C-alpha cells in the first residue's frame, strides 16, 4: 500500500513539473489560430505582444505565422513566431502531429500519428534542435527504431528492430557511424591461451 501511494505521488509530481515547465506557453485565446488545409487542420498559438525575441541564431530553424500561412526559415523570421501548443489534425479529427514551440523553436517532446491514430514517432527537442531519446514505430504500433540525439545528431547506441527476436545495434558519435570492433571475452582469451600452450608443447627441439 505504501509503495502504491509513493508511486502515485511520484506520478503527480512529474505531471506538476511538466505543467510548470510549459506554464509560460499557455497564452490567452486571442493568440490562438486555426488554418484549414485540404487534407488537414492546424491549431496553434502565436507569439504574444509581451514576448519578444531580441536575437536569432543562424543555425536554427524558426517557425512563424503571417497572412494565414506557417513558414519555417533558417536564422530569422518575418511574422509572428509560433509560441505554445501546436496541434495538427487529420480530417477525421485524429491528431497527426503535436508538440510545443517557444518563440519559434521546437521544444520538449513531439509526437506523430497515422490517420488511424497509431503512434509512429516520438522525438525530443531542445531550443530547436533534436536532443534526447527518440522512438519510431511501424503502422501496427510496434517499436522499430530507438536511439538518442545530441544537439541535432545521432549519438550513442542506435537500435533497429528487424523482427520480434532480431535487432541490429549500431553506434554513432556526433552523427557518424562508428566501426564495430569485436570484443575479446574471457572465453576467447582462455581459448587463445590454451592454443599458445599447445603450440609450445609441440615445438621442435633443436639438437646440438
UniProtKB/TrEMBL annotation:
It comes from the Bacteria. Gene3D superfamilies: 3.90.930.1. This is Toxin-antitoxin system YwqK family antitoxin. It comes from Pedobacter albus. The lineage of its organism: Bacteria, Pseudomonadati, Bacteroidota, Sphingobacteriia, Sphingobacteriales.
